[in-house]
């Protein structure tokens, strides 16, 4: 219990130290775990430990700076701080290269060595080092382009369309954005009722994304198609790799930009607003 209490106190300290454009968000596959950790941290801020019994899984959270394409994900073992922290901290980002990822992992390793005698290593690592480096050394998210292979053998690009009764869960939305980044996918999701998800990328990445989405709990989830995308050269430049819209009409607009509005109109999605 003493170790758990120390973890909570350090997370509270870290959260209170964040600047307005810095974010700490818990992330779990089950939304109840995310809610439980948020409630425990808030309770600790109010000197109330009665909610600690709600915790059933170790803390897992992301630390981000708004507008920056790189962030950190931390998974604290139950024995923290008596563990090898380098193995608990991962680097994630929007279309970052392997070289960039290796660079930031080395930065994490170097900074951990500098604070090896700290009583609050996670707090000191991020508040004194990593977050400030994100502010200084990474630019804002740049518009991304869908790149086509330059070699004669073209990569097979697939796309997928999924629909559900609704898409409201903030946890599901965060996970889909995370997966799209990790799998180098492009696409968008329509939140609210109904839920619509469309993505494209390499065959294996699209199939893995669809599998991950299916593994979550849904009401009336349907995989409309997962198939090869033939005319990839016609795809226009994109604002970002993954975005969200709120209206059915915006789904049609997004698909029109890609020259693929018939994929949704033929399913009756947005047909009422299409002439």
Summarize the structure.
This protein is α+β, with helices and mostly antiparallel strands. The chain is 38% helix and 20% strand.
Characterise this structure.
InterPro entries: Phi-like, RWDD2A-B_C, UBQ-conjugating_enzyme/RWD. The protein is of the alpha+beta class and about 280 residues long. The chain has 2 domains: about 1-135, Ubiquitin Conjugating Enzyme; about 155-275, Alpha-Beta Plaits (2-Layer Sandwich), CATH 3.30.70.100. About 40% of the residues lie in helices and about 20% in strands. It has 8 helices and 9 strands. The protein has a 5-stranded mixed β-sheet with strand order 8-5-7-6-9. The protein has a 4-stranded antiparallel β-sheet with strand order 1-2-3-4. The longest helix is centred in the middle third of the chain and has 17 residues, at about 100-115. It is globular, with a radius of gyration of 21 Å. Mean pLDDT is about 80; it is low at about 140-155.
Oligomer: single chain
| Physical arrangement of strands within the biggest beta sheet | 8-5-7-6-9
CATH architect. name of the largest domain: Roll
List the domain count as a whole number.
2
The main sheet comes to:
5 strands, mixed
Low-confidence stretches: 138-153
**Derived structural class:** alpha+beta
| Outline | globular
Cα separation of the termini: 64 Å
InterPro entries: Phi-like (IPR017359), RWDD2A-B_C (IPR059181), UBQ-conjugating_enzyme/RWD (IPR016135)
Secondary structure: elements and pairs:
Blueprint: H1 2-17, E1 22-26, H2 31-45, E2 60-65, E3 70-75, E4 89-93, H3 98-114, H4 121-137, E5 157-164, H5 170-182, E6 186-190, E7 195-202, H6 203-215, E8 222-228, E9 242-245, H7 248-257, H8 262-265
Parallel strand pairs: 6-9
Antiparallel strand pairs: 1-2, 2-3, 3-4, 5-7, 5-8, 6-7
Helix pairs in contact: 1-2, 1-4, 3-4
């Amino acid at each position: 219990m003493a170790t758990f209490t120390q973890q909570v106190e350090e997370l509270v300290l870290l959260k209170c130290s964040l600047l307005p454009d810095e974010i700490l968000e818990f992330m779990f596959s089950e939304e109840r775990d995310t809610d439980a950790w948020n409630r425990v941290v808030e309770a600790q801020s109010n000197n109330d430990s009665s909610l600690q019994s709600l915790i059933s899984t170790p803390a897992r959270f992301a630390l981000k700076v708004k507008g920056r394409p790189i962030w950190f994900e931390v998974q604290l073992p139950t024995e923290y701080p008596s563990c090898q922290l380098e193995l608990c901290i991962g680097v994630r980002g929007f279309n970052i290269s392997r070289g960039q990822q290796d660079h930031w992992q080395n930065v994490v390793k170097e900074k951990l060595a500098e604070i090896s005698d700290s009583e609050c290593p996670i707090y000191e690592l991020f508040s004194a080092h990593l977050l400030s480096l994100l502010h200084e050394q990474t630019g804002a998210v740049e518009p991304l382009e869908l790149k086509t292979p330059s070699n004669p053998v073209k990569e097979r690009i697939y796309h997928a369309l999924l629909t559900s009764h609704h898409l409201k869960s903030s946890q599901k939305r965060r996970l889909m954005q995370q997966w799209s980044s990790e799998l180098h996918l492009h696409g968008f999701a329509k939140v609210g009722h109904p839920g619509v998800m469309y993505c494209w990328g390499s065959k294996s990445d699209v199939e893995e994304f669809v599998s991950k989405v299916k593994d979550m709990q849904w009401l009336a989830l349907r995989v409309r198609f997962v198939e090869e995308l033939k005319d990839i050269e016609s795809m226009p430049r994109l604002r970002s790799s993954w975005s969200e819209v709120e209206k059915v009409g915006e789904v049609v607009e997004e698909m029109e930009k890609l020259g693929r509005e018939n994929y949704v109109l033929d399913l009756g999605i947005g047909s009422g607003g299409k002439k």
